[in-house]
Automatic annotation (TrEMBL):
Domain of life: Bacteria
Molecular function per GO: antioxidant activity; oxidoreductase activity
GO biological process, one term: cytochrome complex assembly
Occurrences of domain Thioredoxin (ranges): 239-382
Record-level GO cellular component terms: cell envelope
Protein name: Peroxiredoxin
PANTHER family: THIOL:DISULFIDE INTERCHANGE PROTEIN DSBE (PTHR42852)
Compartment list: Cell envelope
Organism lineage string: Bacteria, Pseudomonadati, Bacteroidota, Sphingobacteriia, Sphingobacteriales
Signal peptide coordinates: 1-18
Keyword terms: Cytochrome c-type biogenesis, Disulfide bond, Redox-active center, Signal
Length: 382
């Protein structure tokens, strides 16, 4: 299980939601009078590629946090009920920690809680109340999915694995139905846009989701995040099989600039990943096997990491540990990675299989699908 030090994982489902406004002060006021053990509260968030950690203790039953933000961003707050300090808190497993996810923005965010921080009620924040409703709807399903995924990892019997996978798939269908119902019933809520993004997934295109997006209120569509999502839908229409892969240049692990077009004449898997991305790391062993099988047949992989500046060591360690011997590049700007923006990457893992002529052949293939596609395009007989 992951430690709390990976607290940004808590933020992933809500990442990159940005409503630009004039820079000003945010104030979080937590009424914690029912938290009789008076825990220290810690606030974790990112802004402009930088990590921030703040703390507050009770004063007359109230916790106060203040800071400067220039847009609406998602944060995580954790309660240290043992009052043993931040470092001990970070060593705990995520399921052992009392954690709350919400948004901060310029102005006052008020809330009150019972004995647990996670039982908070927002008193003056519409967007947080809406997101809380969405979270309450999805949480039982997500918990059950996590339980089944843990069982699937250790299952050895094929029949048992198949049963578990079918159950997980059924839960995903049910969860997507919840998201769909939410954005249909709440078109004027900014939370509806988030539900739509979750429902649509990274493969969403303007043809499939443009009409649905237009059913959201004009106010929601015109937020910077609404405009960004619409652009993402448009971009998916251009970054498809048969279209030319946009060229780019980015630094590798040694600081040397690597250009995509320098691989012309080879099949290239452009692989977007990060050291903190569990699904990416899980797929890497299978990807290594495909690379070893096809690397002498004019095939290579170019990894683009969405790690951040202070995650450079973790990036390099992941490359070494997973045996990723192909070229790796990154500007260490997390979701603001220039190549990720160029390719409209809003979640990972994502990938593009590019032909020797620089044209996209396919996208988002897992290792097994990649192998079959390479056999097909190279006309290789097994």
């Amino acid at each position: 299980m992951k430690n709390l030090i990976l607290v940004l994982v808590f933020l992933m489902p809500l990442h990159n939601y940005a409503q630009k406004v004039a820079a000003t002060t945010f104030t979080i006021q937590v009424d914690g009078r029912k938290m009789l053990d008076k825990p220290t509260l810690y606030l974790f968030y990112q802004q402009d590629g930088k990590k921030y950690i703040d703390s507050a203790n009770q004063k007359n039953g109230i916790y106060l946090f203040k800071g400067e933000v220039d847009h609406l961003i998602n944060v995580a707050m954790a309660a240290d009920h043992t009052r043993t300090g931040l470092q001990n808190l970070l060593k705990k497993k995520t399921y052992e920690v009392d954690v709350l996810k919400f948004y901060i923005y310029p102005g006052l965010i008020g809330c009150k809680t019972d004995s647990l921080l996670s039982s908070v009620t927002f008193t003056n924040s519409v967007v947080n109340r809406d997101l809380q409703r969405l979270d309450i709807l999805s949480r039982p399903n997500a918990i059950k999915t996590t339980e089944l995924e843990k069982k699937l990892v250790v299952a050895k019997d094929k029949t048992e694995k198949d049963i578990l996978q079918r159950s997980i798939d059924s839960l995903l269908v049910a969860r997507r139905a919840m998201w769909k119902s939410f954005y249909q019933k709440n078109p004027s809520s900014e939370a509806a846009l988030i539900a739509l993004k979750w429902y649509a997934g990274p493969e969403a295109s303007i043809a499939d989701y443009g009409p649905i997006f237009m059913r959201l209120s004009k106010q929601v569509r015109n937020t910077p995040e609404g405009k960004s999502f619409y652009k993402q839908l448009l971009d998916k229409g251009t970054l498809v099989a048969g279209s030319r892969a946009p060229d780019f240049e980015q630094a590798d692990t040694q600081g040397k600039m690597v250009r995509l077009s320098s691989f012309n004449g080879k099949y290239v898997l452009l692989d977007f990943w990060a050291s903190w991305c569990g699904p990416c790391r899980k797929e890497n062993p299978a990807l290594v096997k495909v690379y070893q099988e096809f690397k002498d047949k004019k095939f290579t992989i170019l990894g683009v990491s969405l790690d951040e500046h202070d995650g450079r060591a973790a990036w390099l360690e992941a490359i070494k540990k997973d045996g990723l011997i192909w070229p790796q590049v990154s500007d260490l700007k997390h979701w603001d990675n220039a190549v990720a923006k160029l390719y409209s990457i809003s979640s990972i893992p994502q990938s593009f299989l590019i032909g020797p002529d620089g044209v996209i052949i396919a996208r988002d293939l897992n290792a097994e699908q990649l192998k079959l596609k390479l056999i097909e395009v190279m006309s290789i007989k097994e």
